[in-house]
Design brief:
Layout (H helix, E strand, L loop, with lengths): L14 H32 L6 H10 L17 E3 L21 E11 L4 E12 L2 E12 L1 H10 L6
Antiparallel strand pairs: 1-2, 2-3, 3-4
Amino acid sequence: MILRTNRLNPSAFTLVEVMVAVAILMVCMVSVLLLVNQSLKLVKEMQKQRPDLGALAGKTLMDPVQPNEESPSINVLEIGTVQPFDEDFELSQGGGALSIYRNSYWERDITEVDATNGLYRVTVVVTENNSRGGTETRLNFLMFRPDFAKYLQGQQPGGGQ
């Protein structure tokens, strides 16, 4: 009986090859599971309803200078800090139990940069109250409204009207 120890043509995988393949498979599986976990956290975070500062800035830009019959809006532009009427925010004027953004409100501060030409700096602040305290988010932008400047100049004593 003669035993041959050197095989030139192996027909199966060696133990080392199997261990390397299993290690590669495990690394791939762990990375896929981590990616799925991260995606689920992102989806959960995106499902939280948070106020959009851009939409609030747009509301500020679109508010009328003065109330009239053609555009019956409750909110009008005013110099200074104002908490506008908004039914989407529970703690704002007009908000209630059916509001989209619970325990939150927003306010805007309009200051004159160049009142004669109608350039104003607007700061929109959204305050969200939760169990860990309050969170404030701010957006500053410039607003060009020459019609607002004319309206304000007409209201001042000796301003032309």
